[in-house]
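Wed. Picked up where I left off yesterday with Polar amino acid transport system permease protein. The coffee machine is broken again, so keeping this brief.
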Amino acid sequence: MTKEQIGTLFKLMLEYIPPTLKIFGFTLLWSIPLGMIVALLKMCKFKPISWLTNIYILIMRGTPLLLQLIVAQYSVPYLLKWEGCPSFIHSLLDGVDIRSASYTFNMLLIAFVLNYAAYFAEIFRGGIEAIPKGQYEAAGALGFSRIQTFFRIILPQVIKRVVPASSNEIITLVKDTSLASAIPYMEIMYIAKKQVPTYASLLPLFMAGVFYFAFATVLTLLFGFIEKKLNYYK
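Structure written out below (tokens, as returned):
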């Protein structure tokens, strides 16, 4: 490839970095709070809720994310064609424009959020259960309510404990965004694969790999800094 072709390709791929960052950002925005809610539901003493939460986590962690993306993308058209589809679901989905760009992104986001919420839920649950029960009793003796105890005493300790495991999931998310190209969604990996036959070269894939590597490296350094700041026992 000539320098001009490489420059053109670089500019083209820069245009598709924002859609990749959009998947990453919105997935974190929704999956982290949802993961905390799922963790609390799994710890619920009402067994039916705990069982249903366990089934959800098992399905999300036990099936490939790529499969979940494909199911999310094509579920609405198949439900609309299904003769046995309940009327309220059919009426709810009838106004969905499956040809719009927003539809693809929304289905993509639903799959990513549900998948990563399950993983974050297990991380948060482990962090919460690692806190000694004596701290709850001591907080109650000091007059703290259960909500005050959780947000003022327990949650700060949980955050410190779950940062290393959460950072691994977040860095994995950077690489998993490339799976969106299978839908297809116009992001950096999708455009890189499209340019391979155009230029008869693997350089577009290499350039996409450099982006993922650089992004993951920045996050690794960032979480390393956060862990040092939270390491207040030393």
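Quick read: The chain has a mean pLDDT of 86.
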